[in-house]
Amino acid sequence: MTQPPNRYGPGPSRANVNGNQQAFFPTSPPQQTESDGPVRDNSIMNIRADLNSSLYQICLGLRRRLAEVPGFDQHIAELEEEEAEANDSVTDPVTSMWNCLRRGYPLMTIYNALQPERPLEVDATKLAESNIGKAATFKFLQACLTDLMIPPNECFLITDLYGGDTSGFVKVTKVVNKVLSILDQRGLLIPSKSSYRGDDSNVVPQKLTHRQNIVKEIVTTERT
Q1: Which of 5, 94, 118, 122 is the most buried (most CB within 10 A)?
Q2: Are 150 and 178 in contact (CB under 8 A)?
Q3: pLDDT tens digits along 166-184
């Protein structure tokens, strides 16, 4: 899939402007190609996070909340296109949401919906394609720390999103949901037909593939 067009205009040529990049970019980040999905090991997908509800349901709810974010429709369209191209082979809610947020641009769209004085932007022409998503993610994290005053211990690291540990991705969903709650409090969300506060059973596909049923069962039952 091609990178979504840059709607954010020119920006700094490096993601470490006005912040300590080392805090987010470890010295040796995991190497992973763009085509790779979230990596799961043999220990039942390594899902042992401290959750109040399953990661499967969290991603379903998060997808509905994101549909209420102004300008996020383009990312939903890309997500749906990817699912269609996958032909139901990797379209469980966790994988779809993980791949969506890894692009980085969706995170900037979420923050920019707060209508900040200085919207987040990256200059994709000055970055290697493989680094655009991480640069956008870094700017989102900076904004969460400095503008939204989210404590560092409540934020996630770059490797939580681009690594393969599902417990790290749980941290990502918590931060995204926190920003969405701020948008909700400020009345900046667009009401949709399907509210994220509704019954999750309404959004589970009526007919799941064999793989999706396995994923749903694993993610729903494997909790700490």
Answers
A1: 122
A2: yes
A3: 999 999 999 999 999 999 9
